[in-house]
Amino acid sequence: MMILEAKSVSYYYKSNKEALILDDVNYGFDCGKMYAILGPSGAGKTTLLSLLAGLDVPVKGQILYDGKPLTSKGLTTHRKYHSSLVFQNYNLIDYLTPIENVKLGGKGNPETLLGTIGIGKEFWKRNVLQLSGGQQQRVAIARALASEAKLLLVDEPTGNLDDATAWDVIDLLKRIAHEENKCVIVVTHNKELAKEADAVIRMETHT
Ligand code: ADP
Ligand code: ADP
């Protein structure tokens, strides 16, 4: 069974009801796979991701987790235990070290997680701002992994990274999907990187 589904989902922002951002869309997501949500800026990728993460609710239609529709009561549980979201700007706590940031994610051993994502020991106790963009992105992913949630939702993980580092991050996310049986959903506007995904969802600008 699909772990996450969007069923007949429509969405507009309350501040601009004229602009239908999502128009009756249907998507399904499995564990053990990496999905890319691909499309130009303004297509609604971030909007879809925030609905899947339970940060907001569809105007019409439903988001289902493990076959059950998310109700407004269930949103907190969904955000806390089912999904972990990696923001575009990393949202790391800038006066803390990588170890301390990953600890904030919840369970798991920060050292193991930082090892998994390939951050060398010598960086673990530095201030995160002394790390490169690629390293900060990976620390943010490690923090999301600490939650043990099935869903790993990642917004433009490679936007600020050079090509080689972007490939490393995408390969890392794919490995996490396959080896840890997570459902990884990555928003990107990079067609080449999207080809690495097990499935691609294409979104077009329609406003
Ligand atoms: P991206 O395309 O990289 O997802 P955007 O530039 O579309 O980022 O949006 C950046 C932030 O501004 C997001 O938090 C988004 O919700 C907000 N935003 C974008 N467009 C509008 C808008 N028309 N009115 C209010 N907030 C907006
Ligand atoms: P993408 O992530 O594909 O760049 P977004 O989901 O950020 O697209 O935005 C889709 C559309 O919704 C854009 O036209 C954007 O301007 C609009 N939008 C985004 N956030 C808001 C917001 N908070 N209020 C009003 N409009 C928004």
UniProtKB/TrEMBL annotation:
UniProt domain ABC transporter: residue ranges: 4-207
Under Gene3D superfamilies, the record lists: P-loop containing nucleotide triphosphate hydrolases
Q: Name one Pfam family in it.
A: ABC_tran
- What molecular functions are annotated in GO for this chain? ATP binding
Instruction: Name the CDD domains for this protein.
Output: ABC_MJ0796_LolCDE_FtsE
SMART domains documented for this protein: AAA
**Which PANTHER family has this protein been placed in?**
IMPORT ATP-BINDING PROTEIN, LIPOPROTEIN-RELEASING SYSTEM ATP-BINDING PROTEIN LOLD
State the protein's name: ABC transporter ATP-binding protein
